[in-house]
């Protein structure tokens, strides 16, 4: 048991909520009722708060949209979260929703919810560049399946968020267009590659957002920005419309300011899609069903739950502030009734090199389509080979070129067995080790990153140091498992401390359990919420 360990740093750095949210309703693909979620769980969800506020006529959709857009305009010069914002379209859709409500028409469960979308996820009416010059100015003719489902349920897409080019990076410094800053300290990175989506939610520029996670690109930014990040099981969400980086690893994930919002958004976008052969046909459970109120909880609401703290994630190389926050979180889980023990995954350190071999190999294949003839901007040249080379040389950034070259080498004749084949063998070992650990434990926990957010430029010219920061997350992608990251404490840095995220890893397609445990953990930190200094003095109830 971990209760014998000295409790590290307290959670007193949590910022108090400035104002309580209004009563909420529940999520369903059918007309929403008020029976699923209780008052306390409602008070944490912007999605449900929005719905009840609109249905009770406490605020109009246009007023709500304008308040978020005003905050976005005010904070965007400091953060640079977005590559494109559709102000006029957002307000037009909000007014259309107000008209439907005025006529007492039925509206979807995401009605009025403002969603930011990572710019490697296709949107039919907005540019989708993947943060790359090679796709600058490109607007797809269709929406990604995840985006289409959000729109069908009434969600409003605010704009497209910044990212490391094609999702290759851990800082969002790899974008061809701008560098996004962390709302907790604008001299620091927000993480990556979904840094724009994480920063947008952290600064309440949008209610929720979509990102993509190939090796931790949702979970690490969630940790750095103090928000909830949810990576679903591979196959839970359709990848149709997600620009491919590493097809066997890529998933679309969710950001929110609460576990409830992340779960609701995942529920909205999950399900089989005939346009994606890798999407699962498993029935999608109601991921909002287990969001209990703290008033209805027993004194030990998680009694009987077995938690495994991965020993290898707290070794040398992990910042002391991160270690302290994770051990404090483990003690809190024990207070909730869990049995927490350390578990060893001897293959854990093998995940990082295996991941980079597999991801780079798949990217070299996937990005071959950007040859300026099929896809991508074209550079004028006298002959075909020069056109190929010049278009790709000017269109791709340095990190993308590095990974394409690495992947091409790993797949080349004479090296395939030594690199790619061996990496796939290691992947099988990692899957088996996680399965064995999860056969003995309900959930595994670890840090989401070995440090809190670091300074902009600190690791930009040291790619190996940047790659090493993915050690906590890549194994989950290799195993295809779901993982939830939520704020659990602070490390030193900035004017108010820097957030640290707790990663919870579950068995395949067991997002329900992760969301329930994460929600209870979050709710038992009473009257507390992570609010970055950039907006700490604002009313964030809408």
Brief description of this entry?
The chain has helices spanning 39-42, 46-55, 61-79, 87-102, 145-152, 195-202, 219-225, 259-269, 320-335, 351-366, 384-395, 398-411, 417-440, 463-468, 474-479, 511-523, and strands at residues 15-16, 82-85, 114-118, 156-161, 208-213, 228-231, 251-256, 306-310, 339-343, 443-447, 483-491, 498-505, 528-529. It has 542 residues and is α/β, with parallel strands linked by helices. The protein is globular, with a radius of gyration of 22 Å.
Set down the secondary structure blueprint.
Layout: E1 15-16, H1 39-42, H2 46-55, H3 61-79, E2 82-85, H4 87-102, E3 114-118, H5 145-152, E4 156-161, H6 195-202, E5 208-213, H7 219-225, E6 228-231, E7 251-256, H8 259-269, E8 306-310, H9 320-335, E9 339-343, H10 351-366, H11 384-395, H12 398-411, H13 417-440, E10 443-447, H14 463-468, H15 474-479, E11 483-491, E12 498-505, H16 511-523, E13 528-529
Parallel strand pairs: 3-4, 3-5, 8-9, 8-10
Antiparallel strand pairs: 1-13, 2-4, 5-7, 6-7, 6-11, 10-12, 11-12
Description:
- With 542 residues, this protein is an alpha/beta fold.
- Helix content is 35%, strand content 12%.
- It has helices at 39-42, 46-55, 61-79, 87-102, 145-152, 195-202, 219-225, 259-269, 320-335, 351-366, 384-395, 398-411, 417-440, 463-468, 474-479, 511-523, and strands at residues 15-16, 82-85, 114-118, 156-161, 208-213, 228-231, 251-256, 306-310, 339-343, 443-447, 483-491, 498-505, 528-529.
- The strands form two sheets. Strands 2-4-3-5-7-6-11-12-10-8-9 form an eleven-stranded mixed beta sheet, sandwiched between helices. Strands 1-13 form a two-stranded antiparallel ribbon.
- A hairpin with a 6-residue loop joins β11 (483-491) and β12.
- Residues 1-42 have low confidence and may be disordered.
